[in-house]
Amino acid sequence: MTVEQFRVDGRVAVVTGAASGIGRATAVALSDAGARLVLADRDEENLEKTLKMVDEAVVVPTDVSKKADVDALIDQAVSHYGRVDVMANIAGIMGAGGPITSIEEGVLDRVLAVNLKGVFFGVQAALRVMGEQHSGSIVNMASAAIDHPAANLAVYSMAKAGVAMLTRVAAQEGGPLGVRVNCVAPGYVVTPMTQRGEPERMEAVNAGMRRRSVLGAVGDPDDIANAVLFLASDASRYMTGQTLRPNGGTVMPA
Predict the structure, then answer these.
(1) Are 115 and 159 in contact (CB under 8 A)?
(2) CA within 20 to 30 Å of 250's CA: 44, 171, 189, 227, which one?
(3) Is the domain 2-241 a CATH 3.40.50.720 member?
(4) Domain ranges of the chain
(5) Global pTM?
(6) Each residue's pLDDT tens digit, 41-80
(7) Catalytic residue ranges
(8) CB distance 29 to 23 below 8 Å
(9) Dihedral sign (CA 109, 209, 191, 166)
(10) CA distances from 39 to 93, 100, 214 (A)
(11) What does the pLDDT profile of the chain (254 residues) look like in tens digits?
């Protein structure tokens, strides 16, 4: 049955950024679809909360900006479950915004370390394991910022654009090994990362983003998690090197 193609029963899925937001929603969606999980994040307290929301899972505290941490994450997944079928590189940070002329080197380094190098390390480690298996699906998290320049978000946008191109290159390399690599480029989503500020100010921001959407809506983490689940499952078996854009119609690239 067609609906069964969206199931990932028994597959081993590694999810970074699993302590909150899109990462947590992705973990829950994959669990509901039958996956066995390896949950990764720096935030150990909230990682334990995610653990209580899913069925079968292990927790591996991980700083994705450190290659050794990511390699250890994949090693632990293989040690515990024997394989890795899905790698969801969700972890990301916004970092301090502002004009390009005001960005300090430390901010540049930190955002690129998490949002770009962290994804690279995840792709690198997962490809090694999946290539030996001759199967697997890697899903990276980009952003609508790859399609529409946004003033004061240069570093974040640079990193996410890099993720989109990394995805395409990895798909070229992974295809002959039986590994699919795709990415998701969400529009504005209400998550702890986007809701930092006074409630009144954030509601004004959310209202403005609703007006930009042709659907008159902002995203929920579940909206993005569903896209990740699709790319992780056999329902997308003929897709690789692609970018899904759940963004409410705010960006419609040709």
Answers:
(1) yes
(2) 171
(3) yes
(4) 2-241
(5) 0.95
(6) 999 999 999 999 999 999 999 999 999 999 999 999 999 9
(7) 143, 156, 160
(8) no
(9) negative
(10) 17, 35, 35
(11) 588 999 999 999 999 999 999 999 999 999 999 999 999 999 999 999 999 999 999 999 999 999 999 999 999 999 999 999 999 999 999 987 899 999 999 999 999 999 999 999 999 999 999 999 999 999 999 999 999 998 999 999 999 999 999 999 999 999 999 999 999 999 999 887 787 777 887 788 788 889 989 999 999 999 999 999 999 999 999 999 999 999 999 999 97
| C-alpha triplet 181, 182, 185: angle, nearest 5° | 155
Between the alpha carbon of residue 203 and those of residues 40, 150, 223, 246, the distances in Å are: 30, 20, 20, 21
Tokens representing residue 245 in the block = 């854009």
Which tokens in the block code for residue 101? 């002329």
**Bridge partners, residue 182, by sequence:** 139
| Tokens coding 209 | 């983003």
Name the residue type at position 244: L
Token pair of 114, please?
């998490």
d(CA 15, CA 17): 7
